[in-house]
Amino acid sequence: MPPKKKFSAEQIVDAAFNIAKTEGMDSITIRKVAEQLGSSIAPIYVNFTDVEELKRAVMKKVSQMGNQMLHEQQTGSPFADIGAASLQFAMEYPVLIRDLVMKPSDYLEDYDQDMGAQLVAHMKLDPELEGFDDEELKLILLKMRAFQTGLTLMVVNGQLPALDLNAMREMLNSAAEDVVLAARLRKQAEDE
Description:
- This protein has 9 helices and no strands.
- The chain has helices spanning 9-23, 30-37, 42-47, 51-73, 78-92, 94-102, 107-123, 134-156, 165-191.
- It starts with 8 loop residues before the first helix and ends with a helix.
């Protein structure tokens, strides 16, 4: 009898991610991942107790990828980097974005907590956002996220064929300027 193939947790997560990026998170099953690896299901259960634990590991990978894209942007504005990274992710992984944004998902709770803290920390590096506390930055981020989500869905659904990535970045920057200016004016009015 030939020896059973052994796979690392990372290899298993990569196989599950390949399924998620083409078919969506709900399509990840232990059996499909095993097929992707050319294996039985046994090596998967050596590394993960069930499919839910595997899906959470896939979401952690998605979070790490998003963070990597964020750090690669270097637009000169940390806040603009967030939008640019989000657009890049949407363009590269439309099925996954559509799946994560359009469906209720328990997996996003961990993602939101991880990324939310990282994004607020990233926003604090932006001189344009100086003077805002964490709660104010979270509100600005939420408002921009609402705009960003709409734009992202339009991208993945092919509803902005006339706009290239630079035009979409300009639109994001303009919306961000409007949100930050309104927040600053509101803050000044409250301080008076």
